[in-house]
Amino acid sequence: MLVVMKHNASDEQISGVVRAIKGMGYDARPIPGGQRTAVGLIGNDGGVDAARLEGLEGVLEVIAVTHAYKQVSREWKEEDTVITLPNGTVVGGSDVVIMAGPCAVEGERPIIEVAHQLREMGATVLRGGAFKPRSSPYSFQGLGEEGLRYLARAREETGMMIVTEALDSEGVDLVAEYADIIQIGARNMQNYPLLRRAGRAGKPVLLKRGMAATIEEFLLAAEYVLAEGNHDVILCERGVRSFDRHTRNLLDLAAIPVVHSLSHLPIIADPSHGTGLRSKVIPMARAAVAAGADGLMIEVHQDPPQAMSDGAQSLYPHQFQQMMDQIHVIARAIGRDVVSPLEAVAAD
Amino acid sequence: MLVVMKHNASDEQISGVVRAIKGMGYDARPIPGGQRTAVGLIGNDGGVDAARLEGLEGVLEVIAVTHAYKQVSREWKEEDTVITLPNGTVVGGSDVVIMAGPCAVEGERPIIEVAHQLREMGATVLRGGAFKPRSSPYSFQGLGEEGLRYLARAREETGMMIVTEALDSEGVDLVAEYADIIQIGARNMQNYPLLRRAGRAGKPVLLKRGMAATIEEFLLAAEYVLAEGNHDVILCERGVRSFDRHTRNLLDLAAIPVVHSLSHLPIIADPSHGTGLRSKVIPMARAAVAAGADGLMIEVHQDPPQAMSDGAQSLYPHQFQQMMDQIHVIARAIGRDVVSPLEAVAAD
Amino acid sequence: MLVVMKHNASDEQISGVVRAIKGMGYDARPIPGGQRTAVGLIGNDGGVDAARLEGLEGVLEVIAVTHAYKQVSREWKEEDTVITLPNGTVVGGSDVVIMAGPCAVEGERPIIEVAHQLREMGATVLRGGAFKPRSSPYSFQGLGEEGLRYLARAREETGMMIVTEALDSEGVDLVAEYADIIQIGARNMQNYPLLRRAGRAGKPVLLKRGMAATIEEFLLAAEYVLAEGNHDVILCERGVRSFDRHTRNLLDLAAIPVVHSLSHLPIIADPSHGTGLRSKVIPMARAAVAAGADGLMIEVHQDPPQAMSDGAQSLYPHQFQQMMDQIHVIARAIGRDVVSPLEAVAAD
Amino acid sequence: MLVVMKHNASDEQISGVVRAIKGMGYDARPIPGGQRTAVGLIGNDGGVDAARLEGLEGVLEVIAVTHAYKQVSREWKEEDTVITLPNGTVVGGSDVVIMAGPCAVEGERPIIEVAHQLREMGATVLRGGAFKPRSSPYSFQGLGEEGLRYLARAREETGMMIVTEALDSEGVDLVAEYADIIQIGARNMQNYPLLRRAGRAGKPVLLKRGMAATIEEFLLAAEYVLAEGNHDVILCERGVRSFDRHTRNLLDLAAIPVVHSLSHLPIIADPSHGTGLRSKVIPMARAAVAAGADGLMIEVHQDPPQAMSDGAQSLYPHQFQQMMDQIHVIARAIGRDVVSPLEAVAAD
Lengths: 348, 348, 348, 348
Fold this sequence. Notes:
- 4 copies of one chain form a homotetramer.
- Chain A is 36% helix and 17% strand.
- Chain A is elongated, with a radius of gyration of 23 Å.
- In chain A, helix 3 (108-121) packs parallel to helix 4 (145-158), helix 3 (108-121) runs parallel beside helix 11 and helix 6 (192-199) packs across helix 7.
- Chain A is an alpha/beta fold.
- Chain A folds into 2 domains: 2-63, Alpha-Beta Plaits (2-Layer Sandwich); 83-347, Alpha-Beta Barrel (TIM Barrel).
- Chain A contains 12 helices and 14 strands.
- An 8-stranded parallel sheet of chain A has the order 13-12-11-10-9-8-7-14. In chain A, strands 2-3-1-4 form a 4-stranded antiparallel sheet. In chain A, strands 5-6 form a two-stranded antiparallel sheet.
- The mean pLDDT of chain A is 91.
C-alpha cells in the first residue's frame, strides 16, 4: 500500500502517516520524489483499511498495491483449479463444458424431454431455475422444491448433472440436497451470508458476476466461499450493466482472460443473459469459447415463445445444435475440445 | 405494452402477435404506421413477460408503456407517504430528517457518546452498523447482537431512534427487535427473500439503492416490501457506480425529484457513501437538501482516523455542526425546515 | 413515435397533443388503453424532435418507434455494403480483413520494415498514426505529413493499403491525399464538421465508436458521412467506457451482431484499444472473429517496450503470427476465411 | 510513477525496469515489500508514457502518482482563477453567475425579447446556439453567422455578455468575433485541434465535460487551452452518461467540489442538459449552487413547446424567476451571492 502525500505536505504530516502505519502493526518507508513524497506500507496489506490512512492530514491518496483477495489468486495457487463432477464432467480442464436448459423448470415432462435432447447434442450439465429472482414481485417465482425434484428425475434419466440457483440460506440446503452445483445469481453476488452458507454446503458453487461488479469484487465474492473451505468455485461472466440497451447486458468477454491471469478458478460465460436476445446468443457463445471460456451456460427451450420466463433469449433446440457444431471447431482452434463424457458412455 | 413490428413484417406475423397477446388473456390492437405496424396490448400489463412477445417472428421490439411497479407509484396513491417514528420524528413530511452516526458500532461508550453529541446538534435518528457487509471476508464484520444492544442503550439515553442494517432473514428478526428502522443495504437491494422478510417485520424499512439499479428497479425492490403489507418504506439514494473514481460512487441527486414524481415514498440521501470522501460530504449534503431530499444519512465519528471502517468518509462532530447550520438555511429556502422534535422536548 | 399520456390526462390534454402533432405536419391517432391513452404519430418521424412533445401538458413520455438514421439502416438497403480497395482487399465480404501496424508512425525504416512483416503474415491494410490525439498536450502528437509520406512509401513497397486518422478538416484533405482509408477516431465520433468533410473526401471512411456512444448514436454518426454521398463506411468497435479498469476499455463484441442486424455497413473490431493489454489482444481478436467481425485492426510493433505510444497494447510480430494462425481456423468455423489477395499475387 | 512488479519477478526483471526508467532520463528506486517489489520513478512524470513500462517483463501494473495536467492544477497555482467580463460579470469570485437563454437562436426578435426578460431577472450572460451539434444530420443545425449577429444585437440592447458554441476551427474565429465567451461542447471535449484554436482566440473559453470524461480527462482537455496561453477557462459540468435513462444525463454534482480541490479554475453547472427534463431543472439548479458551483447555465424559452430544439428541458420565464428567488437564499447560506452588476447599473 502506498500513501501519496500532497506536494506541500509538511514533515510533521509525513511523520504522522508513518506513526499511523506503525500503529497498525506494519512497517513504513517514506519515498521522497520529484514533486511529492509517498510512504510505503511494508507487509501484506490485504486487511488494511485504506480509509484510515486517507483521512490523515496531508494525504493525497492511498493506492492499494496488494489485492484484498488471497485464496482465489493465482499467486496463492499457481495451477488451475479443476473440478470433476460425478458424471465425469470436468470443469476447468482442457474441455469446454456445456451447461444448458430452460430458464425455469416449468414441469416434469418438459424438463426431462429437453434434457434428453440437450444430452444428445453434447451438454453434460442441465440448468433450470426452481427459485427465480424476479425484478417484480408479481412475476412467476419458480416451482420451488417441486422444481428441484423434477431436475433430479431428469438427472436419473439422462446422467446429466444439475445446476440450479439458491436465493437464501434455506434454499442453499435444499438445492445442495438435490443439485450437483449450487448457483449464486448476479443479484446475490455480494450477499455474504448466502456466500458463506454456500461455502459450507459441500457442493461446487457456480458464482455469477454482479451487474456492476468489478473483477476485483467478483474475486472477493468468490473468496467468501473459499474462506469457508470450499475450493470448488466456478465463476460465470454474464454481462454487466451498460449505458446502451441494445442488448440486455454487456457481455464482458475480456473478463475471461483477465480472470485466468489473476485467478486459478475456472470461468464460464452465459451469453443468454449476457445479451438477452436469441439472435445474439450463438455469435457470443462462439466468441466466449474463442476468448478462452471454460464452459458455456445456455438457455434452451422447446418452444421459447411459450416460456414462462426469458423466452426471448432462449434458443430453439435446433439452434443449440448449430451452436454446438460451430463451438467444436472453435475450441479445437485453441487446443481445447467439447467432448461429452456421456457421449463416450453412450458410445459403449 | 406496444409490440413494434419490423417494417417488412407479413400479415401472418402480425396476426401471430395478436393471437399470442389474446392467448395471454389481453386484448390486442394493431396500429398501422407510415413505416411499420405496431400492436398495442390493451390492459394492465404489469405482469406480462415482454420476452414472450419479443421472441415472435417479425417483432422488432417490445416497449413497456405501463410500469411493473404498482403500490409504490404515485398513480396508485397520490399523497405523500408520511412515516411517524415513536420519538416524534416524521419522515416524508415538511421537515428534513437527519440520521447520523458512525459507520459501525465499535463499543458501548463510543456509540452513546456520539449519540449525545449528534442529538444536541439536531439529529433524531442514530445510525450504526452491527452487521457489516464487507467486500473482503477478512475485514471487520461488525459486533452483531452486542452492537444492537449498545444501540438500544444509546436510544434509552438520548431518545434518538435507531436505524441499522440487516443482512439476512435471521438478522431481520434481530434488528426488528432492537431497532426502529430496518436498513436494507445497496448490495441487497435485489435480495428478494430479505425484502419479503423485512416487509413482514412490522418496522419501517430504509431501502438503499443498488450500485447499478435503475430507478425502475429501485421502485420494484420497494414494491416487494409493500407487497407484504408494509407501506412504511424510506428510499435512500447513496450513489451509483461510475466510470470515474474521483468519488467512491456517483451521487445521483436527480433521483430525488424523479422518485418524488413517480412515487409517494419519501427519499433521503447518503452523501457519505455517495462520495466516500469527508471533504465532499458537506457540499453534497447541502445539495441533497436543495434538491428536495426528505432527509440525510451522515456518517460521523469522534475520531475518524481511528474508525474501524469507512473512516475516510466520516465527518468530525464539529464538521457535522457546520453542515447542520448550512442545511437549516437551505431547507428554509425551499419551504422546509430541519427541526428536531427532541430539541423541542429538551427545551421544555 | 408514441406519445404516452399520464393516466389522469384530461381529454383536453390529449387533444392538445393531437393538435401539436398535426401542426408538425403528421397524422395523429389516439390509442385508448386500460390504464392510460397513448397517441401515435403516423409517418416517418426520423426528423421529429421528441422534446417538443415531451413538454406538453399531460404527457408522461415520448417513445421513438422509428430510428433517426436512414441510409445506414438495413431497412433502407438490405444487402451488405461491400467495399473493394485498390489492392483487391474486400471489406464486408466473406473474408475477414486484417489491418495492422504500429500505434504511431515513428520513422520511415520502422514502418516499412513492419509493413513487410505484416504483409507476409497476411495483413493487407497498414495502420499507423501520423496525427495522434493524446489526452495530454505534452505527449507525442505524431509526425504529421512526414508520417503520411512514410506510410505512402510503405504502400509502394508492399502493396498494402493505408488507413490513418484525421483530426480536423485540413487533416482530412491531407490524409485523403496519401491514404486509402480515412480514420475518424473515437474522440471525434460526434465531431460533425469532421464527419461531413470526410464524407466529401472521396475515400472510404473507417469510423470508430465513441467511448460512450450507443449503437444508435454510432449509426447516426455514420449517417453524417453517408448523407454527404459517401457510402463506403467501415464501422469499428473499439471498446466503451466501463466502471472497471482491469482493461482500458470494455470491448462490446455483441455490437457486431447488433450492427449487422440493424445496418448493411461492415464492422470490424480493434482489440488493441479495446483491451489496452497485450496479453488480452489475442483472445479478444479470436473472439471478435468468432462473433462475426468483418475484420480486425491490430497494433503491432517490432519492439513494443520502445514504442512512442501505446506500447503496452502492441503485439510483437511473432504474437501477431500466432494470432493469424488461430484466426484462420475460427473464420472457417463460421464459413468465412482470412485470405490475403496480396499473398495470391505473391504466389504468382 | 510506481512500477509494481509481480510477486515472483526475478532480479533480472527488476533491473530491466530500472534500466528502462533510466533510459527515459529519470531516476529509479526499487522498494522491496512484503509480497513484491515496486520501483519508483523519481522526477516529474507528467510526460511519461506508462505503456512503455507496462509492457516490460515481470511488471504487474504501473501506477501514476503525479497527474498529467499541470497548469490547471491547484498545485501549480493556488489562488482561484477569477475571470472578469467586460460588463462587470465576475466568474470564479464570490458571486454565482447566471448564464441563460434558449437552446438555439431562432430569430432576432425572440432572442432580444428573452434577453430583456432574463437580464431583468438577474442573468448577466446570454446563451444561445448558432451552430448546433445534432445527433442526426437531418435535425435543425442552427442559423450560423446570422444567429451570431442576433446575439450581438441582444448584447447591445441589454448589456448581457454572449456565450455560444463553436464546432470547428473556422467557427472559433467567427464566434470569437461576435461572442464574449467561446463554448466548446461536450461532444468536442477531446477535439484537440479545436481546443488549441480556442486557446489562441483571445476570449474566455467555456469547456463542457464530455459525456464519459473522467475529471482527469476533463482537466487535461482544459490544459490544452491553457497550454496555448489562454488561462481564462470556465469548466462546466453537464451530466455524464449513465445506465439509467430517467434523466437524459446523470448530473455529477460532486465534480464541483472535486474540481475545486484539484484545480484553480471556476466550474459552473448546466442542469438543463444535465437532466433533460424541465421539471427537474430547478431542483438540480438549487443543488448545484448548494454544492458550490460558480455559476449556472440554464435553458429558457418563451414558449418551450414551440422551441426548435431541446424544448422539453427549457424553463418558462416564470419558472426561471422562481429558480432565481430560491438560488439567492441558497447562495447566501454558503457565504456567496447572486448579484447582477447590470442590476446595479440599472439602479443608477
